[in-house]
Amino acid sequence: MMSKNDGEIRFGNPAELHGTKVQIPYLTTEKNSFKRMDDEDKQQETQSPTMSPLASPPSSPPHYQRVPLSHGYSKLRSSAEQMHPAPYEARQPLVQPEGSSSGGPGTKPLRHQASLIRSFSVERELQDNSSYPDEPWRITEEQREYYVNQFRSLQPDPSSFISGSVAKNFFTKSKLSIPELSYIWELSDADCDGALTLPEFCAAFHLIVARKNGYPLPEGLPPTLQPEYLQAAFPKPKWDCQLFDSYSESLPANQQPRDLNRMEKTSVKDMADLPVPTQDVTSDDKQATKSGLLPPPPALPPRPCPSQSEQVSEAELLPQLSRAPSQAVESSPAKKDVPYSQPPSKPIRRKFRPENQATENQEPSTAASGPASAATMKPHPTVQKQSSKQKKAIQTAIRKNKEANAVLARLNSELQQQLKEVHQERIALENQLEQLRPVTVL
Amino acid sequence: MAVCIAVIAKENYPLYIRSTPTENELKFHYMVHTSLDVVDEKISAMGKALVDQRELYLGLLYPTEDYKVYGYVTNSKVKFVMVVDSSNTALRDNEIRSMFRKLHNSYTDVMCNPFYNPGDRIQSRWALLPVSASSPGGPYFLCPIQSRWALLLCPIQSRAFDNMVTSMMIQVC
């Protein structure tokens, strides 16, 4: 078994950064899967052991796993789709034992643990953006998609933000040192509010990925990682139609709470506007139904959060969405199964969707076929619209309340802290008073 | 421009201290330390009133022959101490206030970093304190009168804060 250090050393090797697929596994500290993966990857000379998709964010791109390093990164990009089924199949068995892998062979328990780690494992080619071979700070589409999925795993609402503590726990899994992580946070949290919006999160994730691959951290946030750039760079094609489907109703509602919360959200709205046109173009029926709701520009909510999924993935996602209601109740592993069949699965969205889609998704029965689900959606566009509006309102309210809750919780914690301090002061003062009293009495 | 800027925690141990490297830094460390008593005195004097009414900016703590020491306290009892060269007569109170305000903002940004644990030292790229480094206690700010040692297990590195302090030392903000 390789020691964890080996993997880390690998990551630090800059030589592997160029021209080859760089795999960046984020391993949770306690996971042996890292060791396991190192073993497997040794043969492949990969840096990052692929993680089983069992991890909470199963959505990470399948091709990241177990893709032999022999693939050139250009090949990776082109064959991303092709590779998806293979890795997923490979991961299928991993999915099964997720809940009960303890009895399995040595690798199995590791995989089980790896599932958690996998959430953080990313095979990335820092240079897999073929148009920008020398810009490691440019986020590729696949990377973006992965970041978005990870974001969703932490925060289902792409328009909202991740709190500092949640992000801290998540990024700590990357096994970078705390000073480095704090520096990355400092770079990526542009508005210094202690929370990460989706573009900020993508920037932070990308920096971590780069750092794991040996790139030194920049002095300042590169222009390609700026939140405004990220929001502008991945507008249309990346929007995940899923996002819009589920969030289309909440679009108008989202805007209001976002305005209250952060100014940055307005930029997200702009992003939302961009995706709308793309959705109209998408062939998915679901999108078609939703797109009708989306067109109003301001309605584009934060959802647009960089759903970078490609069109192919969108098609696949839609079926998943349709399946969502039927599978809404399913456990997470089940959800993972479904997504695995199709490359970019977004199980989290499923959870969210069931509420929306419960009534709208008339075709939950259409199992896993994307086109089938799409076809089934067609017959009920009108019904969907009617119920979607109701859903919209409900979801809007829900979202508003959630955001208000988050803000109030923060306030509460801060006030609690202040209260504690005041209490301490009071106690100190009372002690002083006690000490002085006998003197005065005399 | 400041010759020395220090951030003192509530328990009176330093979170961040940096001075212009040309001078004997020990002297500044000592000045900052002695100023803590003055700060406490000012806080307690105003403490009779409601904490809300207490102003954050404490003003001139005490002047020395060559330097003046200014103080600033936050609501969480974190103190900022700034040592300014007396020869710089053009420095006005308003400027000092604005400098403290910026310091406070930078400090708040450091606080917002979830990887920063309140009470950790704020690491500076340039804060190579020869005194601290050579002291047997390691990265400690050794002070005989200090009430508590600072266990700096994981100092956070905040370049933004550092840059802000650097700019203050170079020019008046």
Topology of this protein?
The complex is a heterodimer of chains A (442) and B (173).
Chain A lengths: L3 H9 L10 E2 L8 H12 L28 H6 L1 H4 L1 H11 L11 H12 L3 E2 L17 H14 L7 E2 H9 L5 H11 L6 E2 L1 H15 L14 H7 L7 H7 L3 H11 L2 H10 L1 H7 L3 H9 L17 H17 L4 H10 L5 H14 L9 H8 L3 H61 L1
Antiparallel strand pairs in A: 1-2, 3-4
Helix pairs in contact in A: 2-6, 5-18, 7-10, 9-10, 10-11, 12-16, 12-19, 13-14, 13-21, 15-16, 16-21, 17-19, 17-20, 19-21
Chain B lengths: L1 E7 L5 E6 L5 H23 L9 E7 L3 E7 L5 E7 L7 H20 L9 E2 L6 H5 L21 E2 L1 H12 L3
Parallel strand pairs in B: 6-7
Antiparallel strand pairs in B: 1-2, 1-5, 3-4, 4-5
Helix pairs in contact in B: 2-4
| Average of pLDDT of chain A | 58
Helix content of chain A: 55-70%
Total helical elements of chain A: 21
Report the structural category of chain A: mainly alpha
**In what range is the share of β-strand residues of chain A?**
under 5%
How would you write the strand order of the largest sheet of chain B?
Answer: 2-1-5-4-3
Number-wise, the strands of chain A total 4
CA-CA gap between termini of chain A? 77 Å
Descriptive notes:
The complex is a heterodimer of chains A (442) and B (173). With 442 residues, chain A is mainly α. Chain A has 21 helices and four strands. Chain A has helices at residues 4-12, 33-44, 73-78, 80-83, 85-95, 107-118, 141-154, 164-172, 178-188, 198-212, 227-233, 241-247, 251-261, 264-273, 275-281, 285-293, 311-327, 332-341, 347-360, 370-377, 381-441, and strands at residues 23-24, 122-123, 162-163, 195-196. Chain A has a two-stranded antiparallel ribbon. The radius of gyration of chain A is 23 Å and the shape is flat. By secondary structure, chain B is an alpha+beta fold. In chain B, the strands form two sheets. Chain B has a five-stranded antiparallel β-sheet. The radius of gyration of chain B is 15 Å and the shape is globular. Chain B starts with a strand and ends with a helix. At the A-B interface, helix 8, helix 9 and helix 21 of A face helix 2 and strand 7 of B.
